[in-house]
Amino acid sequence: MLTLSEIFRGAIARILVCISLWLAIALVNPPLAQADVTDIAPQLARINATELHISLGDRQGQLKFYPNHFDLIAGQTYKLILDNPSPEKHYFSAPDFAAASWTRKVEAAGVEVKGTVRELELKPNAEAEWVFVPEKPGDYHLECTISGHAEAGMTGTLTIRARSSESV
Ligand SMILES: [Cu+2]
Questions:
Q1: Does pLDDT of 35 surpass 50?
Q2: Where residue 79 sits, what CATH number does that domain have?
């Protein structure tokens, strides 16, 4: 049979175990500082990048973008992979769209290019990657700026839509 002092000592011991456990958890998991949250955000956005592909022309030398229209959602991260399967040089030129978007990264021929994208030049068989976040809703014109190409049909539209929770 337990004496009163044994019950009392048992209770004290349990309380001490609880306090030390709580201290251990608090030390291992300190509350997240604001800086930590900011550091994590770009990595999360990178993981969620939606991949898109566009071809500038085709093997037969057609002067077109494939596809010639994209529907994008503001605030979402996209990774646009551009290639040129045609026998001649082409440009992906959409300066107004670029101004309405935030460029995170541009990579062409394995080299990262810094700064804003207004126009990307793709030589035959070249590939480029553009990681961006569209921001300002609207319809933006895309064209190849080589003389005669836009007139022959090498144009497109890039649409940025507001997130569904926002009104346009
Ligand atoms: Cu062209």
A1: no
A2: 2.60.40.420
